[in-house]
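#onboarding

Welcome to the new folks! Below is a worked example of what a typical request in this channel looks like: someone posts a single protein sequence, and someone else replies with the predicted structure as tokens. Don't worry about understanding the tokens yet, we'll cover that in week two.

Example request:
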Amino acid sequence: MGLWQEMNDIQKCIGNSFLTVSEAMQQIDDNCNGILFLVDDGGRLSGCITDGDIRRFLLSGGKMDAPAIKAANRVPKYARTREEAVSLYHKRNYIAIPIVNGEGKIVGLYNGEGHEIRHRDALNIPVVINAGGKGSRLDPFTRVLPKPLIPVGDLPIVEHIMREYRSYSCNEFHIIVNYKRDLMKAYFFDNENHYDITWYDEEKPLGTGGGLSLLRGKFADTFFFANCDALLTANYGSMVKFHKENKNAITMICAYKNINIPYGIVEMGVNGAIEGMREKPRMSFLTNTGIYIVEPEVINDIEDDVPVGFPDIVEMERKKGRKVAVFPVSENDWMDMGQLPELEKMRIKLYGE
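Example response:
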């Protein structure tokens, strides 16, 4: 039987039409349902917005401080009764169907079994993981184990990452190693999941991008390139589709971060004149997750045995006139496992309390 939620349960899924895109994104992250229903000042349904709507709006040039209604679907599906909601919901892969009364106000929400079942495309794309660094952000644990083997719950960081790729039928792994490489290889030698791994040994640290030179000539088509401490739960199929449709040489996966500044911000002009003030504003910006979709010709531009960061390679490709682009994802879809304070948060997100 599907999940029927009454009004006192769904306020977190409802937002005012005058929310900004940034605020709507934050509320979508908080409600964990992947959707926000927008209402006007009278409480009447006026639109709905999802992560995908926001992404399309931003990629078309929209701004995070724009009204959310500009990115929303202005004609959302709705029902008048629970029975009608059930019928609508099961005709297509809807996230949720709101039930509205005669005044157009939301009085309930139907979202199936309460659990989204994500369709995962079989991508069959090779995955390169850069696992050669010392992991200084995780010291002192990395004095004993290489960063990729630091456990998060029942599994090490790197295996969480690999399992996510495997769920998209990305089963071919190429792992660049350096620091404590023998421990890495030993762990996977006995691993019951039998991963298909080719190892590449750095003889000296080559940064976050230089190790790719070891894979010259290995690929004829698109591949994923990822740091060993970043896990995404966004739709990988959408990322690859965006990359290929736009004929990018590199697509950088970036997450929107929203930070509440706990101070009043003052903008100063000539002679100390106050030009504006904002009380405890929210700042939104894009941050690099360390995950990329890459075309093989990029490897040919990387010098052998020369340390270089992959963001520097992105900039080099951009200056050469090749297409490089950003694919934005929600902050909630990105887990950065490379910092000690984040490890427990990641464990709770992956395993629950």
